[in-house]
Specification:
The complex is a heterodimer of chains A (about 230) and B (about 100). With about 230 residues, chain A is mainly α. Chain A has helices spanning about 5-25, 25-35, 40-50, 55-65, 70-95, 100-105, 110-115, 120-155, 160-175, 180-195, 205-230. With about 100 residues, chain B is mostly helical. Chain B has 5 helices and 2 strands; from the N terminus they run H-H-H-E-E-H-H. In chain B, helix 4 runs antiparallel to helix 5 (about 85-100). Classes of the chains: A mainly alpha (about 230), B mainly alpha (about 100). Chain B: Keywords: Membrane, Transmembrane, Transmembrane helix.
Chain lengths: ~230, ~100
């Protein structure tokens, strides 16, 4: 099964490792989704068709907080916008057209992009991207089903702390992005603005509005300085 | 169709459209420093807002309960570089325990 070329084999093994580790946490999405009031079908359709973890967690998070489903949709799509930028970076190396592009697009997520762009050439980019993307897709969906069925069988999600697991999941997704001060500042502003908006607006709105305010503040505060520092 | 299903399918359509658009648009059109910075900041702002609302909001009021303890546990687990699943279910266990004791 594994390629005979040593470099290729390493790419495949690394991609499988990332794919398995990431796909496994589909179980937490499934459990959280049913704990948030979705049924098993809805949880599985989200993993099959949305297939981008942060957006899926955002959708169920907003719904769990009592927000309108379409507010959940808006949050999910805003979060999914980064996948468009991943696609822009990937397309010169992937070189996919026609129906292949339509299939490939579905696999454009954080992990497949990171593994793909980490390779030295276009051929290994394709290899890493595909192995990572397909592994995650298969496992993520299987584990979502497992988590969703288990979550429904468990009963009251609060007794197991599953409602608290959502915040931890978002923090774990956020954590690796807090690498520098502009990002940390944006995170603090986003959290603060959202909390401030909770008593004032309908559920679901604080997240979108708070997140947007944070991005605007981040752009205003970090823009000129970052531009001057650029070589 | 229920509102929840409409939301699920609309999210699927929107997220997929963005993925296809990324692979399809000419690079020069979006390769702008401002666009790239906004793109990098959007997940940070939204995820931070989601953390805060998820942990502190109870409908339209704010409460401090077991979820805050769970978030503290998540921070500790992230600092010691625990894997994603350990962070998520570790935090859930702390909240469950706190409710059992409290």
């Amino acid at each position: 099964m594994l390629p005979t070329d040593n470099g290729d084999r390493k790419v495949v093994v690394d991609s499988l490792g990332v794919g398995i580790a990431t796909g496994a946490y589909g179980v937490s999405f499934g459990a959280v989704a049913t704990a948030s009031g979705l049924d098993v079908w809805q949880a599985c359709v989200l993993s099959l068709l949305v297939f981008t973890g942060a957006s899926q967690f955002a959708f169920v998070g907003v719904v769990a907080a009592g927000g309108a489903p379409l507010a959940g949709t808006a949050t999910a799509v805003l979060l999914g916008s980064r996948n468009a930028f991943y696609g822009v970076a990937l397309s010169p190396r992937l070189q996919v057209h026609g129906w292949r592009r339509l299939l490939t697009a579905h696999l454009v997520i954080d992990e497949s992009t990171a593994m793909g762009l980490g390779q030295p050439d276009a051929r290994r980019t394709r290899l890493a991207f595909r192995v990572t993307g397909v592994t995650i897709f298969v496992l993520w969906n299987l584990m979502t089903l497992v988590g969703a069925v288990a979550g429904e069988a468990l009963g009251d999600p609060r007794a197991y702390g599953l409602d608290a697991a959502v915040g931890a999941a978002f923090l774990a997704l956020l954590w690796p992005r807090l690498t520098a001060w502009p990002q940390r500042l944006v995170a603090v502003v986003g959290a603060g603005a959202a909390v401030g908006l909770v008593p004032l607006t309908a559920a679901g709105v604080p997240v979108i509005l708070g997140g947007t305010v944070a991005v605007v503040v981040g752009m205003l505060l970090t823009g000129p300085r970052t531009a001057e520092e650029a070589p | 169709m229920s509102a929840l299903w409409v939301g699920v399918l609309a999210a699927a359509a929107g997220c997929y459209a963005l993925k296809v658009a990324g692979l399809s648009v000419p690079r020069a059109l979006v390769e702008h420093p401002v666009a790239e910075r906004v793109a990098a900041l959007i997940p940070v702002g939204l995820l931070a807002a989601l953390v805060a609302v998820q942990v502190l909001a109870d409908g339209r009021s704010l409460t401090v309960d077991a979820r805050v303890l769970a978030l503290g546990a998540a921070v500790v687990l992230l600092v010691v570089r625990a894997p994603f699943l350990v962070v998520v279910f570790g935090a859930a266990a702390v909240a469950a325990l706190a409710r059992l004791v409290g």
